[in-house]
Design goal:
Layout: E1 3-7, H1 18-21, E2 30-32, H2 50-60, E3 65-70, H3 72-83, E4 88-94, H4 111-117, H5 133-136, E5 143-148, H6 156-165, E6 169-174, H7 181-184, H8 186-197
Parallel strand pairs: 1-2, 1-3, 3-4, 4-5, 5-6
Length: about 200
């Protein structure tokens, strides 16, 4: 039996993916992450950067895992996939650049809005700059990349670039989807994820 790991974005709440998870067929156990010190989540002294979030995920990868990740959480998922490839069964990457440079693709900068919404969040979250373009091709597990055609932060061109770098990726556009498409289009997203998980 495998395991489903659900990773939120910088909003950090473990509840983010639950509307989608509730619509998935039963089976493998699920684990919902919250990110200490981000969003409205209380800080923990041992969490001081993205590497610590990656370590949290890798610790849960004690069997073949599907990582289902939103926005910044997809960067964590990709880093975890590169750290523990033998335990990765598949990826679902939603509304994200996944560590691919996107300055030339028209996405809006989310940092100022995030700081206004979550003034107590750890400062490091808005200082992350990673280019994983040369490493992503090493991830050979099946990947589903979900993009919303109305996402101002990660527009479709961002998902297209990410999916081209992943050797076994399928790109799916969600019509009318914004950056929170996993919430606003939970039925459609759950259907696509269920199809993805059922392919192997």
């Amino acid at each position: 039996m495998g395991k489903l790991l659900f990773l939120p974005g910088a909003g950090a709440s473990a509840d983010f993916w639950k509307p989608v998870a509730e619509r998935l067929p039963g089976g493998d156990p699920a684990h919902f992450f919250a990110w200490p010190g981000l969003g409205d989540e209380p800080a923990q002294p041992q969490i001081s950067g993205i590497d610590d979030l990656v370590a949290m995920v890798v610790e849960q990868m004690d069997r073949p895992c599907d990582l289902v990740a939103q926005s910044m959480g997809a960067l964590v998922a990709i880093l975890a996939a590169l750290t523990a490839p033998a335990q990765l069964r598949s990826l679902v990457l939603c509304a994200t650049s996944g560590g691919v440079p996107v300055d030339d693709l028209g996405g809006t900068d989310w940092r100022a809005d995030y700081r206004r919404e979550f003034p107590g969040a750890a400062p490091w979250i808005t200082e992350i700059k990673m280019d994983l373009s040369d490493q992503i091709g090493a991830i050979t597990a099946p990947a589903l990349v979900l993009v919303g055609d109305r996402d101002p932060i990660s527009p479709p061109a961002v998902g297209e670039r990410l999916s081209r770098l992943l050797p076994h990726a399928r790109l799916q556009r969600i019509r009318g989807g914004g950056h929170d498409l996993a919430r606003t289009h939970a039925d459609q997203v759950a259907t696509l994820i269920a199809e993805h998980l059922g392919r192997y």
